[in-house]
Amino acid sequence: MEAFTTHTGRAVPLRRSNVDTDQIIPAHWLKKVTRDGFEDGLFEAWRKDETFVLNKPERQGATVLVAGPDFGTGSSREHAVWALQNYGFKAVISSRFADIFRGNSLKNGLLTVVLDQKVVDALWELIEKDPQAEITVDLEAREVRAEGVTAAFELDENSRWRLLNGLDDISITLQNEADIAAYETQRPAHKPRTVQA
Amino acid sequence: MGRTLAEKVWDDHVVRRAEGEPDLLFIDLHLLHEVTSPQAFDGLRKTGRQVRRLDLTIATEDHNTPTLDIDKPIADPVSRAQLETLRKNCADFGVRLHPLGDVEQGVVHVVGPQLGLTQPGTTVVCGDSHTSTHGAFGALAFGIGTSQVEHVLATQTLPLARPKTMAITVDGELPEGVTAKDLILAIIAKIGTGGGQGYILEYRGPAIEKLSMEARMTICNMSIEAGARAGMIAPDETTFDYIKGRAHAPQGADWDEAVAYWRTLKSDDDAVFDAEVVIDADSLAPFVTWGTNPGQGAPLSADVPDPASYEDASERYAAEKALEYMGLTAGQPLRDIKVDTVFVGSCTNGRIEDLRAAAEIVKGRKVADGVRMLVVPGSARVGLQAVEEGLDQVFKAAGAEWRHAGCSMCLGMNPDQLAPGERSASTSNRNFEGRQGKGGRTHLVSPQVAAATAVTGHLAAPADLTDAPTPAGV
User: Fold this and answer.
1) Is the pLDDT score of A167 beyond 50?
2) Smallest CA–CA separation between A54 and chain B, in Å?
3) Is B407 part of any known ligand binding site?
């Protein structure tokens, strides 16, 4: 995973709640067997509408998505995270994220930042008024900064440490392989098996 | 202090607990399918890792599989390539696979319980959010992303922060004609699509205890639609009876030991939940969705709501957008909504009891002119059983299409899709924009409402059918 320390970039205001993963990346894109090449599928249906915010010239090259509450609801498809990253987003800000989407984002180095809706409203106003306005997402300071806005955000220390260092979860877990092996020897015999080991 | 069911199962699977770290949980059963696994197997190859526990891993094909002509090569080359990738991955790494055409193939969440692999007190994961289905057995079961799929393949564990717990107590008894699907849609409408975020839900109370295993699976299946990764129901005699004798059920002394353990899997009387919700089953009626998220639902007898009636600005805006997309007008009676397609199937409502319920209603009746009704069993084995019971003939006689098993029109990754502007009554779990096909409009319903809707051509409950069915054979 790529490390995330701090990022500054222009932003896209997405004033919609309950943006589900079928909107982020429609199911027919899920037939791909790679982690890249999903950028054209991002918000595919909405992008057919010329007036959709992502299509506006002033939003090209933006890297921070500021979305309504309950972003990423629905399916567990990690493709939603890859699509956002493939398109160029480095961070998503919302007042509430769906659990699975949030977990997936943090495993891929896409920083999902939870801020009060009031702060989200302030950011929307700022970036709608001035499309050139930049937002800084600072993971070291756990802070979002933009003109007239400074807001602290929470992220558990363990996730933060993994992101700051770009650590691979599997390697960390395998450092405790002895614990896994010890647990395995104590599992009851009645537990189901798919095949005879 | 006592513990909740979720806490007991969690505690029994902690491999490692350390200050400032998420718990490392052991995974008892890992289910794989073709869509969310290819990149995970690639990851294993890149790092030279193996599947740690092949005996706790099983794969099937469901999302992409066609429901017609399954003996011919798959027409869509991209779908075919994805299925071939799964077959190669399973062959290379030694994973048990039930491919298209196999009697155990089907929607992954129908296959696990059917084989008896889903058992109380186990941890079950799959790269699919409807893994919550397995919680109906008192398992801790949740959907994971592809990075976590790779993690489980390599380590048979997952590092996870412990969620909070929420009790959803359903008092009373579901009235005649009201099903588990109506109940879960009503629960989601009440707590909202984000209401369960950060929680494991436990459904309990007299109305839940009376439900069959399959009805319980319908309930737990849609926990994710309330934002909860997992939903659970304490195992009881209904659960044990369902598991007993299945291919992977414990045998002999193991069975007795297992049941003794399973009986301990209920929330203690003095357990404290982080949140509690109470639902009165007696007051419920058939429930349908009118909008584009599963929380936008109402009793079938209601009218399409007026967005102006929402106090919350973002809900109001969401309702306006939903009505626009769905092509509905505020105040229009839900019963007046005409549909083009009826879909019976999916991991929510594709099991044998669902097919029986729908068949009972269409038996001796005809699907309305201009309506297409698709019946897709949740697994090949469910399909076989339905054929043994003659249900396929009932559906065909009514003018419905009887198909092979798979996810099908629930998410339209195979050719079973809605055309732009087409409207469906669907027994599946998501009414998101374009979910069943670009521009398609979905109303989530129970199998009974789906069947009655197919007959009348507009959203309807079985009680609305005034015609007497024609006797069989006529």
Assistant:
1) yes
2) 18
3) yes
Among all chains, which residue has been given the structure tokens 């209904």?
B238
The answer on whether B347 is annotated among ligand-binding residues is yes
Q: Contacts of residue A27 in chain B, CB cutoff 8 Å? A: 63, 411-413, 435
Tens-place pLDDT, residues A92-107: 999 999 999 999 999 9
Chain segment B47-66, per-residue pLDDT in tens: 999 999 999 999 999 999 99
The answer to whether B461 touches B448, Cβ cutoff 8 Å, is yes
- Bridge partners for B287 per DSSP: B299
Q: Identify the CATH homologous superfamily for domain B5-275.
A: Aconitase, domain 3 (3.30.499.10)
The distance of A135 to chain B (nearest Cα, Å) reads 23
Show me where the domains of chain B are located: 5-275, 291-464
In degrees, rounded to 5, the angle at the alpha carbon of residue B344 between the alpha carbons of residues B331 and B404 is 155
> C-alpha B19: how far from its chain's center?
36
How much is the pTM?
Answer: 0.97
Superfamily designation of domain B291-464? Aconitase, domain 3 (3.30.499.10)
- pLDDT of B474 > 60? The answer is no
Residue window 85-124, chain A: list those with CB within 8 Å of chain B: 96, 98-100, 103-104, 107-108
pLDDT value at residue B364:
97
pLDDT, tens only, A27-80? 999 999 999 999 999 999 999 999 999 999 999 999 999 999 999 999 999 999
Rounded Cα–Cα distance for residues B62 and B412 (Å) = 11
CATH class of A6-185: alpha beta
Residues of A in contact with B58 (CB under 8 A): 194
How close does chain A come to B16, measured CA to CA in Å?
Answer: 7
| Beta carbons of B194 and A158 less than 8 Å apart | no
pLDDT at residue B473 greater than cutoff 60:
no
Residues B296-315: what's their mean pLDDT?
Answer: 94
Q: Is the model's pLDDT at B432 over the cut of 80? A: yes
Chain A: residue whose CA lies nearest to B83: A31
Assess A48–B contact: CB distance below 8 Å, yes or no: no
User: What value of ipTM does the predicted structure carry?
Assistant: 0.96
